[in-house]
Design brief:
This is Putative glycosyl transferase. This protein is of the alpha/beta class. It is about 35% helix and about 20% strand. The chain contains eleven helices and nine strands.
Amino acid sequence: MRSVVVLIASTPREEFLKTISLPSIAAQTHQPAAVVLVADQRPICLSDRQRLQTLLGNIPLVCLQNAYLPGAAGSWNTGIDYIATHFAKVYIAILDDDDNWEPTHLSLCLAHSENGEADIVLSGIHVVKAGIIVATNIPASLCVDDFLVGNPGWQGSNTFISGELAAAVGGFTNGLASCNDRDFAIRVLELRPQVTYTSRATVSWQINHSSDALSAVRSPQKLLGVSQFYHKHRHRMSEIQKEMFFNRIERLFLWSKAEIEDEVRSFHVAHSSIGQNGQCHSNPAQSKDYSNCLD
């Protein structure tokens, strides 16, 4: 059976780590082999690390600094690199610093992993706003097309993926401001991995925790991220899918089609680094830096 390593990207937001995510990990009925915490904006000092370690008990805590471009993608990639180097035959379970798992989350994922043969195990998600569950999404079957318009149920905090597959796909798209989960899912699912489903919601995704959250209405980072995503993946979309994409963004975040298209036009893309399909020619496993394709 594979071991499990938990990966968290944080600025760091210590209050969320101390009150939400780390206690959730410590309460797991299946204890992970380690927690890898990657700080994006400032290093985690020794005294802070010691306080965070106390919350985890005997679960080893590894603290790293983002080695790529600022943002969640670079932080996750830093952690994926570390895990690939230090752990063999492992599942990577991602948890956002302000989300939490039910105590059986990791054990349930392992129980549905076909004895470690599954490449990905997906659980369901409760969408929580101000402490109230406003929606529940339990995926049962996913394909690439599902992620072109929206997200049918694969978020950061229910990502449970083999370390080999995470490394093989080149990790996350460095420089992508948002939509990291959808972009990652598209590239992973194109490899036709073995995916299993727990059929239970064991993840609580906390939305609108702060006014600058990506899920906040009119978030500038959300505009940048969806525009980058559209620029990168529009060649895959039918005209109907494009309209559904724009309608969803306007309904949820109040960014219009015209505003997104204006943002895309503002990108200064280095054409020499872009293929006809809009993908970078750089090797993501080596650099994981897609900023020249997105800026």
